[in-house]
Amino acid sequence: MANALPHIEDSNKTTYLPPVGTYETFADEEDYAEKVREWGLSTTKEVKKQFWYKEATFQRQVTIIGYQTYGKTDDYYTVIIEFEDGNLSCIHPAYLKEMQSPSFTKLVTSESENSPTETVPTKTVEEKAAPAEPKTKEAKPKKEKKEKPKKIELPEDKVHFTAVVKQFAYSWNHFNEENDEVVVLENVRIEQEDPIDIGLAWCSHSKTLKKFELSPGVSLEFDGKIVKKKLPSGKDVEEEFIISDPVPYKINNPSKIVKS
Question: Under CATH, which number does the domain 159-259 receive?
Answer without folding.
Answer: 2.40.50
